[in-house]
UniProtKB/TrEMBL annotation:
The lineage of its organism: Bacteria, Bacillati, Actinomycetota, Actinomycetes, Sporichthyales. This is Enoyl-CoA hydratase-related protein. Transmembrane segments: none annotated. Belongs to the enoyl-CoA hydratase/isomerase family. It comes from Sporichthya brevicatena. InterPro entries: ClpP/crotonase-like_dom_sf, Enoyl-CoA_hyd/isom_CS, Enoyl-CoA_hydra/iso.
Length: 276
């Protein structure tokens, strides 16, 4: 599936950054099976396009993602918990992805580019899961962030029971999950889930500015290796992570990016990995 085939997402690339926009504003960007497939394809294109170094994920209109649409949840409940999976084809998992991490929602951890969620308005349920699997979260001060699950009789969905405590600690994860309280951006930052808070109109520009700076001044090869080190290697044995880091170092010493970095260091300026 190519970006031109997307019906519920927009995908655009500029200055080393792929901007992925959930585009169902009339339904507050409610998560759907079609959107999930398109998101997988968007991440695949970002991962395999050498022009992309960072991904920014946002929502059209005033919301990030209000979760699964209530009509869909009602149909699943009325059907005794059964549902029909989306039949559109999916892209392959990123090369080298461990078998145990080959899950739809885990793909943002596996791709070679950092993912930044730019959150304004509602971020609930499936939207919360989506943002949790990003590397960073920028949020509006007046965003409305909630896990939702406990108020719907649901568990923590799609592995965030594993990921969220590793991000913000068990106790803070329990606060978000057990209470399903609605947090604004400041409260979510206090709990460690959000990294940067802005006025609503400034969230996306701030995320794009940060993303562009990463794309330009941080080596794409370094980002690729570090992403895997943090999101995959760090959860395995120390000896394996250490051995692979040495292998990475030996490979990096032969990569063109090190010459760009050393030249900038010698000239006492920031490297420009997009231009050089």
């Amino acid at each position: 599936m190519e970006p031109g085939d997307f019906a519920e997402l927009d995908y655009a690339v500029a200055d080393g950054v792929a901007t992925v926009t959930l585009n169902r504003p009339e339904r507050r960007n409610a998560w759907s099976g079609r959107m999930a497939v398109e998101y997988r394809w968007a991440l695949h294109h970002a991962d395999t396009d050498p022009a992309v170094r960072v991904v920014v994920l946002t929502g059209a209109g005033g919301d990030f993602c209000a979760g699964a649409h209530s009509e869909s949840l009602n149909k699943i409940s009325d059907g005794g918990g059964s549902y029909q999976p989306e039949k559109l084809p999916l892209p392959p998992y990123p090369e080298g992805a461990p078998d145990g991490m080959r899950r739809n929602h885990v793909v943002p951890l596996l791709i070679s580019t950092p993912v930044i969620a730019a959150i304004r308005g509602a971020c609930a349920g499936a939207g919360f899961v989506l943002a949790t699997y990003a590397d960073f979260r920028f949020a509006a001060a007046d965003a409305r962030i909630t896990t939702s699950f406990a108020r719907l009789g649901l568990p923590a969905e799609y592995g965030i029971n594993w990921l969220l405590p590793r991000q913000i600690g068990v106790t803070n994860a329990a606060i978000l999950l057990y209470t399903a309280a609605i947090c604004d951006g400041e409260r979510a930052r206090d709990l460690g889930w959000v990294q940067s808070v802005h006025a609503a109109d400034d969230v996306l520009p701030a995320a794009l500015e940060f993303a562009t700076s990463l794309a330009r001044h941080s080596s794409g090869e370094s980002l690729r290796m570090m992403k895997r080190q943090l999101m995959v290697d760090a959860w395995g044995p120390l000896d394996e992570a250490y051995t692979r880091s040495v292998q990475d170092m030996n490979a990096a010493l032969k990569h063109p990016d090190i010459r760009v970095g050393l030249r900038a260091l010698k000239e006492k300026r920031l490297p420009d990995f997009l231009a050089e």
